[in-house]
Design a protein that fits this description.
With 197 residues, the chain is α+β, with helices and mostly antiparallel strands. The protein is built from 5 helices and 8 strands, in the order ααααββββαββββ.
């Protein structure tokens, strides 16, 4: 995670940009992995107070009655996407937009947007062309090592489960005969537990 600050360390004033957005991602991940999130926050050069302020400002933008919508908010905060291409999911057409996330150079923040601009999904995915992890057993599932899609492919069939918050996902699967549940925040693996048989 070298050179993660493409812009100055996020403060409590000025434009809300990519570094502040990464603090928002870390705030939610700290519920599962406080040590990893704290180390990443320090890499961004931000204090706990700055992280709390970034989260407060983000929540204010999300809840503002004057909000222009989620897609416009991401464009405003993250700038132009690195790529945007049409994607079909079943019978539905959408646009997949990707932004770099300096804390995780091999990942991208993906937003799936409907033709009317409504956001269907928003999470971290592996960057195109980046090599993903080798996932063969539950021991390979280390925090922050894999995305929802990668775990779903490696341990298919999986059963999606309701997350405990809007930014969280859970997958139930079997790894070498052991029933497991993987938990994700913003699409990035946080922890794996052995499920009740």
């Amino acid at each position: 995670m070298d050179s993660v600050t493409a812009n100055p360390p996020p403060g409590t004033r000025g434009p809300f940009g990519p570094a502040a957005f990464q603090l928002v991602l870390l705030r939610r991940m700290a519920d599962f992995q406080p040590d990893l999130a704290d180390e990443a926050r320090r890499k961004l050069g931000a204090s706990l107070a700055e992280q709390r302020e970034a989260n407060r400002r983000w929540q204010a933008m999300v809840r503002s009655p004057r909000s222009r919508g989620a897609l416009a908010r991401y464009r405003s905060v993250l700038g132009p996407p690195e790529s945007a291409e049409p994607r079909r999911i079943g019978d539905l057409e959408c646009e997949a937009l990707l932004w770099p996330v300096p804390l995780w150079p091999d990942l991208r923040f993906e937003v799936l947007a409907a033709p009317d601009g409504a956001v269907w999904n928003e999470w971290l995915v592996r960057a195109p062309g980046a090599g993903g992890p080798v996932l063969e057993s539950a021991d390979d599932l280390r925090p922050w090592s894999a995305t929802v899609d990668e775990v779903a492919r490696a341990f298919a069939p999986v059963r999606p489960m309701e997350g405990t918050a809007p930014t969280r996902w859970r997958l139930a699967f079997t790894a070498r005969g052991m029933p497991c549940v993987a938990e994700f925040t913003y699409g990035l693996l946080q922890r794996v537990s052995v499920a009740d048989a």
